[in-house]
Each structure stands twice: as structure tokens, then as C-alpha cells.
Give the backbone structure.
Amino acid sequence: MEPGYPHLTEILSHIQGYIFPNEIDLQWGILIVVYPFITGLVAGAFILASLERVFRVKILKPTYQLALLTALSFLLVATLPLISHLAQPLRAYEIMITPHGSSAMAIFGFVYLWYLMVVLLLEIWFDYRQSMVIWSQEKTGIMKWVYKIITLGLSDISPRTLEWDRKLGYFITVIGIPSAFILHGYVGFIFGSIKANPWWSTPLMPIIFLFSAMVSGIAMVMLIYMVVSYIRTKDLDINVLDAIGKYLFFVLILDFTIEGLDQIHRIYEAEESFETIKLLVEGKLYLTLFISQGLIGTLIPLGLLAFLQFYKGRIRLRKTLYFITGILILIGVYSMRWNVVIGGQLFSKSFSGFTSFKVGLIGLDGTLMAAFWLILPFGILAFLLWLLPPWKMVPEDY
Amino acid sequence: MKFYIPPQLTRLSIAFAIFITLFLLLRKLLIPDTFGQYGHYRGDSLTDNALPVVHYAGQQACLECHQDIEDQKQADVHSRIKCETCHGPGQKHSESAEATNILKPDSREFCGNCHEKNAARRSEAVVQIIINEHNTGKKCIECHNPHQPWTMKE
Amino acid sequence: MDNERVKPSRRKFLKSAVTIAGAAIGYQWLKSGQYLLYGADPEDKNVPWYGIVIDIEKCIGCGSCAKSCKMENDVPKEPFFFRNWVEQYTVKNDGSVEITSPNGGIDGFKQTVPDEEIFKSFFVPKMCNHCYKSPCEQVCPVGATYLSPEGVVMVDDKYCIGCRYCVQACPYGCRFIHPERKVASKCTLCYHRLKKNLAPACMEVCPTGARMYGNLRDKNSEIVKFLKEHTTQVLRPNLNTGSKLYYNALGMEVK
């Protein structure tokens, strides 16, 4: 007897209409939902950090390093769901040594490296250099050497050199903003450039991904700021929350508008795939699109944020509302990733039927694995906050 | 005044130079020999893809021994059908002829794959019967010689 | 007084230069237009440039092609992995279309709609279109999918990383991840057979001659003659994939 594929046999009975026989097996599962979600958090967190630096939004100062380290923690994990999803994970290096020029996925490897090595690490390095030098002189034992190594053995903290730290750091931030846009716009392009899939193939896809990334990243930094303050039993500055909330509100409006525009355009043009997509949206995606993404993740947070723009009353209530808003937004953006990645594979490219998707709990492509990749960045962040605590930095005098 | 280079730039440049050199060295080490020989792929892959064993021997191989059957076939409507269409892959059989390593399908269902009545089959293309009504209980080949279907056995 | 800013001799030179440049660009443009037609004109003139014809009018839906492909190419027998398959389209009198492909057509077709409800019905064999502007080759991040000099789209089993991007990019659903080899898998037009001067398995066993393959560059080949004498169509022409699988009598219902 041939080895069977019980999970596929089960799906066989859930197929509606006609799908191509090879389409029964869904190619990209929950890990590919997690991947753009994590990358989005990186881009969003970085853009929030840049607001402070480039546009001199002084009020956001307490979140600057926090946002940078958050971005780094998530960026370090960003490619891991992808790699663990490969059928041949050990061959992943090929994407760096023989990248195929016409493949969006191949170039992503370099966009990622650029962003990691040239933007994030450098910006953090310039920002922390003075403190790291001082820590390397204060500490003893192994930690002394750790700091020595990450300063690349450079202990020059003369005013002139420090001035250059600021200049170079500023320069990196300035190229960092377009880099962050490219990084996440690029993730959108990976989907948006697949002409075979009408649910993905739209030039707006990179922009949609970008704005939802900013929304999720800002919300995530806001939540982390609240939680870190709570853990350190430091008072949370409500003005900081108000400032973040204001940006979150405007970006969310933009995000909602662009996604709405995309859907309106799709509905009005009603191309050959429209009937299928309509059935998809009203059927299998109803819960995750209208309820989870639309209502819970967009409309309610929009309402709350609008309310918080005017309501300047009880601080405790405002903090609670901000916290709820942050959580809801993250749920909404995660659902958006789900709707794109999974939704795009539920209908057949024959436009005549639908397959179905069931997430398993265990296995390389299961919920536990996805949860692991989502939790890991927080562990890295905790480590980074211990290694490079923003609150122990040398106070800046500029 | 001497041109000033900030010390952190020097350190970083060295670090990046080391990183890029390592990357290039690794790349040279890991890249397959024939990559890029014809295009952006491993040239040897063409040979690899030509390697798999052939299972269907092709009509010529059959005719080397079974010209008699072919002559029968040519006299009737199954003349254009190749041996391996019904008898399955014959490479093994052509290498060592045994009755066991070639298929001899005789079920009504097998004949039905072509001859079961179906609205999509054009009547001038293929003769069709309703398999559940046409001489039920008998195998097709009890009456029809598959190599000469209109030469009835009985 | 010479009030012309450009000397006549120079003007003449400019004129001819512009003409030559224009002609060159125009020629390039025309040439690129010619590519659309049967995807011909590959770089290497010494090898054939393969195309495929499937004649819907001749197909009787026996499924021999799909069956032989699985036997020839080590494709798992389960009904989730196919390099080629056959679909039956049934247009009903009410205008709705029913499409079926039980086990890719390997076990034969049972008519699912009673005769009196049928407006028309036909079979459509599907396989890799061996596109020369193939979306799957375009998106492969490592160069593990490529167009061979003969115009056959193939996978490098030793190099594929299994990212499944190509499966997403193929509009025809012709690719799958081989469950044992853990790499993308697809029709190779039986490249191993072509190299031994044997016909692809599906072409070998087709009882009605509904499938045909051949060298598109050879203007005397059977396939080019067929293309000349029949009005053929590719699947999803709007996607500009440069498909080299030409269908005769393809219904508009087919995607």
C-alpha cells in the first residue's frame, strides 16, 4: 500500500466546486502568515524611532531605544519562519550565493541584509557607542570583554568623535527611513507581483503592507513601552502614549483608506476572478476579514483612538484604552496577513472552486512552531534590554 | 589641516570589509561548478534531468518481437493505438520478456475508460456503449479481440 | 551668409544616424513582437525548440496520458500530485459549468450530468505549458527552475530549496511539492525520453493522437503544419506567459 496523506484526504471532502488537482495541498501555511507580520513590526517600530530622531519629536524620546531594540529583536527572527518553512531548509544559503535577479524573494535576502547590517545595527551602534565604552570600563570579568568586542575595540569618546557618532547616526536614520519602507514594501511586492493570483496581484499591495506594518509596529512599541514601564515599576508618561496614539490614529486612517481603495477598485472593475473572490470574502474569509480585521482590528481601534484624541480625563482609563487599542490593532494586522496569505490560496486558480485550510498544532508548519517564532523576539528583546539598557545610558546633552 | 576620518568609520570599514570578503569567499566555495554555464541555473541539471530510467519502451521496441500482433491491429480500428497504451510500461518486458512484467488489462472498466458512453466523447471518434447494459456479466474480451475489435470471437 | 545652424553635410549625417537608430529600434521592437508568435527564435539554433499541441476535438478522456505520466515519472499515486491530468467540462442548459477531474481522469470519467440537461461537454487535458516567459522560472529565487535550451521548463532537484514560490506563480496549477523528494516537481516533457529520441510518455500512449509535440523552429514539422491549418489558443493569454501549449478548439469555459 502506498503511503497515504491523511490530512490531504480529509481536505478532499471539503473542496467546493472544481480546483486543480495540485491545489489541494496548500503551499504556504501559518508560518508565512507570521513572516510578514514580524517583518511589519520591524518596519513599524523603526519608523516610530525615526520620528524622534529625524523629525525631532522630543516627546517620543523615552521610546527611541526601545523601538530600535524591538525592531532588531524582530528583525533577527524575521527570516526564521521562512527558512523553517522551506522543504529543504539546509539549502537556504543558495538564496544568497546565486540570487535570481528576477525573483522578488531572492532580492529580499539582500534588502534584509542591508537593513540589518547597514541600518539597524549601525544606528544602534552609533547610538550606544559612548555608553558601551563606559560600560566596558566599569564592568569586570566577561561582560567587560563583551562590551569591548561590540564596540569593535574602539574606546575613543572624545567630544569630537562623539559628535561624529551623532552625525553618522543621523545620516543612517535618514537612509533608514526609505530602507524601512523598502523592506516592508518589498514583502508586499513578493505577493503583489504574482500575476497568477488576482487576490494578491495589485500594485497597491506594497503600500498596503507598508501602512499596516507601520500600524502594527507602532502599536507593538506602545505595548512594549507600557509593559516595560510596568515591569520596571516606573511611572508611565501619559503624554508619550498620547503622542504615539496620535500617530497611530493618523497612520491607521491612511491604512484603512488605502485598503478600502484597493477593495473598492476590485469591486468596481470586477474582473474575471471577481465572482470567485466575492464568494471567498463572503464565505471562508468572512470572520477573519470583516470581523477580525475590519471590525476588531480597524473600526473599533479607530473609534477608541478618535475618542482618545479628545478625551483627556482619567489617566488610568486612558492607559487601559491605549492598551486595548494596541492589542486589537495587532489582532487586526495579524488577521490581515492571514487574509492575504491564506485567503490567496483558498480559491483555485481555475476560479471555479475552493479548497480548505486547517492549521495543525504540531509539526514544522503548525501553530506551536508559529507561536514559537512569535514569542522568540520577546526573549531576544529582554536580552537586549539587559545588555543595552536604555535607562542606564549616558544622558545626552544635546 | 589634515583630512579627518572619524575613528569609528575606520573600524566599521574594516569590519565590513572582513564581512564582505568572507561572504565572497564562501560564495566562491559554495557555488556549484556548472552554475551559469547556460543560464542562471546549474548546467549539470540538464544531464540530471536526462538521467531517469525510461519505463515506456516505445512502439519500436514492441515491434521487434510482436510484429504479428501489429499486423492484426493494422487490419482494424485500433490500428493507431500503441501497445503500451493498454499494456502499460514495457521497458522491463522488452529487456527480459516474461508474461508477468507486462499488463494485460481485461476488466470491463478498463475498456470503459474509452468506450463508456459520455457526452464529451464524440460519437464519430469512438464507439460507445452503456457499460451497465451492454452484455453485463461478461468480459469485453470474451467477444471482442482487443487487437481486432470487430472480429468477434463468437 | 550661412544662417543655418547645422551644416548640410552634418545634417545629412544626423539624418541618416537617426534613421539607422530608428530602424534598429523599430527592428528590435518588431522582433520582440514576433516573439509572441509561437515563442520561437531561441538563442541556440542547433537544438529543437519544443512546443505542444492538444486537440480537444480528438480527446476522448481515457486518462491514458495522466496514468502513463505517473508511471513514467515517479509521481506519487495519491490524487494530490499530478504532472498532467484531464478535466471534463459540462456546460448545462441553464448556462452553468460543471468541471470534474476524478483522480485526474486516471480511473476514467463517469458522466455526472444527465444527457437532457447537457448543452455541451468536452475533455481538456492539462499539463505544463512550457512557457518561454514562464512565471515560475521568473520567481524562483535560486535558479532551480529554468528554461532549457530546448524550451523545456525544468526543476533542478539538487538545488531547489522548496520555497513553493513557483507553485504560487504558476497560473495553470501544474506544479506541486514532491512529498518524498521535498522539491518542486512538474512535467519535464519527459526530457529523459526526448534525449533518447523517444516521445514523451503521454504522447506515446494517447490512443487518438490528440497530443502532439515538436520543433517549432522547423517550419516543416508536423506541429507547425498543424498550427498553420488550425486556429489554436493558449490558456490565460492575458497573463502573457508565452505558453507553448496550443489548444485546438478550446472552449471559452476553460481556465
